[in-house]
Amino acid sequence: MTIREKGKPIDLTAASLAIAQSLEEKELAYNSANLADCSGIFHRVLQEFKAIYPKHKYPSVKKYRDSRSLALWYKKQGKLTEVQAGKEEELGWNIRPGMAMFYGKNAISHVGLVVAVIRDEKGQVLQYSLFHGRNPRHFASITDFHRLEPSRAEYPVYGDGGMRWLAFAPVVF
Predict the structure, then answer these.
(1) What is the pLDDT of residue 2?
(2) Residue 122 DSSP one-character state
């Protein structure tokens, strides 16, 4: 994703990947008490972006702590796009590094940062890599199993495991 800083375009691809790799190296164990659950990891990502791009808007960790609240903050800014069931492939063109992705079964319950995208020759997203706090069995890490054609029949298009892709927003705008 490209944003503007002092009138010049900035590509968030390199920053997204660098931030994710830096946090991944810390081997942050899943824990809500020290910002190491999925929304806590996302707030750590936002803190890193704020250090690089301080003049942009970012949600407060105190007021918007969980993934649902984060999505609400982006919605209040007019930046959240909701994804209706069956429209994932149609909206997949919007997936790019620097995007916050929101997932859940019926309501938002998970968030992560897109750090890389693989597209076909027409530009359709085939697969993307996501940095996120996963669960107590895994450190926060980059995963690459988010696909147009999921690896399991029961997994949704562009989803995170069994969770459906529900919304997205630019991390920095």
Answers:
(1) 63
(2) T
